[in-house]
Specification:
This protein has 192 residues and is an alpha+beta fold. It contains one helix and nine strands, in the order αβββββββββ. 31% of the residues lie in helices and 39% in strands. Strand 7 and strand 8 form a beta hairpin.
């Protein structure tokens, strides 16, 4: 009987030791996962901060492209589009607005939409308390006469552009990433 009690005691002590060892290894794995997540979050924040700073500098230099991945029409309907063919671009005093959809109809620009060029003027930038940047300018050309409003959110290069034509109410909103002109890979169709 003493042997049996000693054997049961030994089994219980072994089991409790294994449970403690399993719990400590779980805690170690959890701490490793938490450290990895914190490292990834810090890297993501650093990348977003850099992208934001580059976008603000590109706005100041008047050398930027908003590569749109979503177009919102005035009636509220939206469409997801290609960033290489849907953009608002400024190169010093020249501005281009291009919208192109993947359709069988080539459109005036040859790639399924419209491309308009014009001269940009009256650019104004403001930054609010939270670091969000608002920029607006006028574009005047043969195919376009509009006010362009850009809202760049602090903490990244996500931006919204609203193109408000002067002669009609066909307001168009584009959502996407604002990048410096030299980092953009857009494809420009025929303009008018």
């Amino acid at each position: 009987m003493k042997k049996f009690i000693a054997l049961v005691a030994l089994v219980l002590v072994s089991a409790s030791t294994m449970l403690v060892a399993q719990e400590s290894s779980r805690e170690i794995r959890k701490a490793e996962r938490d450290a990895e997540r914190a490292k990834m979050k810090a890297e993501e924040n650093a990348a977003n901060t850099l992208a934001y700073q580059q976008a603000v500098q590109a706005l100041k230099d008047k050398q930027f492209v908003l590569e749109a991945d979503q177009v919102i029409f005035r009636n509220g309907q939206s469409a997801f589009v290609s960033t290489t063919t849907n953009f608002v671009m400024m190169n010093e005093q020249r501005a281009t607005v291009q919208i192109a959809f993947n359709t069988a109809y080539p459109g005036p620009n040859g790639i399924g939409g419209v491309t308009v060029d014009g001269t940009a003027s009256d650019m104004q930038m403001t930054t609010d308390k939270k670091g969000n940047v608002n920029c607006n300018f006028s574009v005047q050309g043969i195919g376009i006469s509009a006010q362009v409003f850009i809202s760049l959110t602090n903490g990244g290069n996500n931006a919204t552009v609203t193109v408000n034509p002067n002669f009609n109410s066909n307001t168009l909103t584009l959502n996407g990433n604002l990048v410096p002109l030299n980092q953009s890979d857009v494809f420009k169709g025929r303009s008018w």
